[in-house]
Amino acid sequence: MAEERCSGIGAYDVVVVGGGVTGTVLAKVVAELAWRDRKSLSILILEAGTGMVGGDATHNAYLNTYYGALAKTPNAPYPIADNAPSPEDLAFLKPPQDRYFVQRGPLPFGSNNLRLLGGTTHHWMGIALRMLPSDFELSGRHGVGVDWPFTYDDLKPYYEKAEWELGVSADSLDQLEINGVKPKDFGAYQFPMHGLPRSYLDKVLGKGLDKFTFKIDGQNYPARLVPIPQARNAMPNPSAKDPRDYIARTSENERLYQPFGAPDDPFTGAGQRCEGNASCIPICPSRAKYSALKTIEQLKMLSLRSGIRVDIVTKAVASDLELDDAGNIAAINYLAYDEPDLAYATPRRATGRWFVLASSAIENAKLLLASHGAPDGEGLANSSGRVGKNLMDHPFVLSWALMPENQPVGGFRGPGVTCDLPMRHGAFRSNRAAFRTDVGNWGWGLADGAPYQDVERIINPAAFAGMALGSPAKDLVPAEPIFGAALRQLIRSRVRRQITLGFLMEQLPSSANRVTIDDKHRDALGLHKPIIHYDIDDYTRKGMETAFDFATAVYQKLGAKEYTDPAVALGTEVKFGKRTFKYIGAGHIIGTHRMGTQKTNSVVDGDQRSWDHRNLYIIGCGSMPTTGTSNPTLTATALSIKSAEHLFRNLGLAGR
Amino acid sequence: MKHRPVQIHPYAVPAIAEYDKHSEKPSELRLFLDVSIALTGFTEAELKSTGLVRAYFDEIALVVGHAIRTHFLQQAAKDPGAVMRKDSMWQPLAQNLLRLWYLGQWKRMPKCWARTHFDEKTQHSYDEFGRDIDRVVSPQSYQEGLVWRAIGVNPPGAKQPGFGSWGEKI
After folding, report:
1. What is the mean pLDDT of residues A495-515?
2. Are strands A435-440 and A396-402 parallel, antiparallel or unpaired?
3. What's the rounded mean pLDDT across residues A249-264?
4. Mean pLDDT of chain A
């Protein structure tokens, strides 16, 4: 398998743009099917960023960069090529013309991705929960948004396969009815690994919130802690049977789950469990967390054993798609560069029979819009006029509080989140956004820069003297600097009592929230920068108000003192009536090439196949018609597997 | 502060000993340790186990110069509380000493701090290497930040505590 540049880029059966989770899982499933059915196959994966597979040396270099970074942001550990820029974590520190996203407002789009082999799964949190049945029928059930072209039950088998592909740890018995799915709905299916242990914080909160309910629109909703399924190695479930029918097997024993740990490492490669490093974002040192590097490694092993050709070419930035006379895709043109930061590249052309765009929602849209060949200049795959439109996120808002003196809960222990406090479905969704809750295991880390800010407040109180009189954090600032044993003790008692509830807000599709391009805005290689129009409507803002009221009710019930303060919170202000909130991006880039039932209302069909160019699949979170409240990677992976099976049926491969 | 005289083997003298081998007077490194113990609230063994005593001792001189470091350590050794008070000219440096130990970070000193407080002769070597900026001193200094020990947890991303440790009572 070549990781170097191929000079002759001949006709492949499948050409995939993007070496992240959706593209590599699709490639793997197609390759598994070809191996199972004894077909010959060739796949090319083009990756815009740099990167190499596995390698402890590379991983350790990322880790060291993370240790040494002042701002430990999602992309901080990773090398980012000037020639394939990623959206900056701290874009506001740069002058607007130097930023990758051109933000046209009225609000900034807060999420970003990582252009590097393995993609954004390098820095994702690893939360892998399904969408709810009601999320697929938002319009039908609640009269807002749109419906998906299929139901939850249609996607369910692919969710099961995706959970085995990513390695998800959860117990179906824990998935309560509160999430709209009853344990018995899972049937005989079992997750490949048992759920991760709940954090001590979860246990304290679970006890404190016993029988607690919260009222929305006059209806009581139980506030219960529900363990979150995570793509993170835990204890394998020995009675679970692999549902992936695309894998060739010689015996029933092979249906047992084999955890996959560090790629390329013979010592930890056997499948290390989560070791509680407390740094899932931005980097999992033990590599218990799924990253697409694992799929790439499995693809490499499959290629070696089967003779299926899989070429991965990095430093190859797709620039546009070429059409043949019949209106199908004939080739993908790309720019091949040698030096990540030297703006010099050679134009190349990759040909094939089938093409897959898997370069994340914003990049997919940009690539289609930048492709010439369509007579009206509107880009490709765009007869519906919807390419780039309906950009969504889960605007993420934070609330925080201190538990009483005698009740430490932890702080900075374990995976970022182990339990959810869901308000994910109910009649209220007709007028306001649903949300799910990150019950944060890392103190006020995200909310208030803990523990750095705690140290600053205590050793340098003068710097906080200007704090507005109404600020709740005023009582945390001493009159004189504190040092010595008192400092040590105060940090200990304070940080261990910090709790943060972070809310991932549902967002409705809107054609006004969109990605466009403009010839005036180009990156180092002269390719278009994404231009983004984005706003948050009152449906989501009203949901935010409910979420903050919910947080306050939870803190009161727990006897915790709330410190939520939009003045110091991270992010951008939004107003709702007299209330002010601050949101940040959740890193969930959704929409831009919506799936639908018809050519007129959508860019792709229910198999993520372009309506306009029938040898093209456009895959990933961009295909999702609505956001629901689930972190979208698992759903995108399930969709990839669905598309892969569909693509394989269309491939018409020759036997070997 | 009292100093216990110690016998140092003549062939095992480190580059800077904690005590002068002839007079048994504490060296500047020893003063640095004593000041660090008083300001951080951590014991000598805890500080030494970070492996960073010498690195932080050097770091201060690399930024403010040797003369100012000497001044500072002498003042702080007399009364560690005095250098932390908000009206003390030494406060920014004492705070940075705490940031080094607790966070592994250096924060830029107040503008013109050296020029305001020191004469030409003392300040001429101030920040000759351009290190007076906000930064993490080194990957190791992040991992050894005392703030994590104070809380009783591992520094995120290092020194992994093990599967399920997060579920145990604290």
Report:
1. 97
2. unpaired
3. 87
4. 93
Query: For residue A235, what are its two tokens?
Result: 């204890």
Binary contact (A275, B38; C-beta < 8 A): no
What pLDDT score was predicted for residue A8? 45
**Considering only CA atoms, which of A490, A483, A454, A464 is closest in space to residue B94?**
A483
The 3-class secondary structure across A431-499, one letter per residue, is: CCCCEEEEEECCCCHHHHCCCHHHHHHHHCHHHHCCCCCCCHHHHHCCCCCCCCHHHHHHHHHHHCCEE
Tell which phi-psi region holds residue A218, choosing left (phi > 0), alpha (psi between -120 and 50) or beta: left
- Domains of chain A: which residue ranges? 12-228+243-442+497-651
* Ranges A173-182, A348-357, A366-375, B133-142: which has the least confidence: A173-182
Whether residue A261 is predicted with pLDDT greater than 90 in this model: the reply is no
List CB contacts of A375: < 8 A, sequence separation 6 or more: none
pLDDT for position A267: 60
**Which pLDDT band, with edges at 50, 70 and 90, does B3 fall under?**
low
With residue B63 as reference, give the H or E element that holds it: helix B53-64
In a domain, B45, yes or no: yes
Q: Which of A286, A455, A496 is opposite residue B103, by nearest beta carbon?
A: A455
Task: Please give the distance of CA B64 from its chain centroid, rounded to a whole number.
Answer: 13
Q: Are A590 and A391 within 8 A, CB to CB?
A: yes
Of the candidates A145, A190, A150, the residue with the CA atom closest to the CA atom of residue A171:
A190
Least confident of A7-16, A208-217, A514-523, A575-584: A7-16
CATH topology of domain A12-228+243-442+497-651: FAD/NAD(P)-binding domain (3.50.50)
Task: Specify the pTM.
Answer: 0.94
In a domain, B98, yes or no: yes
Q: Which of A275, A459, A484 lies at the smallest CB-CB distance from B160? A: A275
Q: Tell me the three state secondary structure of residue B113.
A: helix
Flag whether residue A442 sits within 8 Å of chain B, measured between CB atoms. Answer: yes
Asked whether residue B95 is assigned to any structural domain, the reply reads: yes
Closest-CA distance of chain B to residue A496, Å: 7
A376 contact B CB<8A:
no
| A274 interfacial to chain B (CB closer than 8 Å) | yes
CA-nearest residue to A201 within chain B is B167
Minimal C-alpha gap between A455 and chain B (Å):
8
* Cβ separation A414–B153 shorter than 8 A: no
pLDDT digits (tens, 9 = 90+) for B25-58: 788 999 999 999 999 999 999 999 999 999 999 9
In a domain, B12, yes or no: no
Closest Cα to residue B153, out of A494, A414, A320, A598? A414
d(CA A145, CA A155): 19
Question: Which domain, by its residues, includes B92?
Answer: 24-154
Q: What is the interface pTM, i.e. ipTM, of the complex?
A: 0.93
A492–B151 C-beta distance less than 8 A: yes
Query: Residues A627, A631, A634, A640: is their CA dihedral positive or negative?
Result: positive
* Contact: A63, B95; criterion CB under 8 Å: no
- Tell me how many residue pairs between chain A and chain B have CB atoms under 8 A apart: 152
B19: tokens are: 């005590």
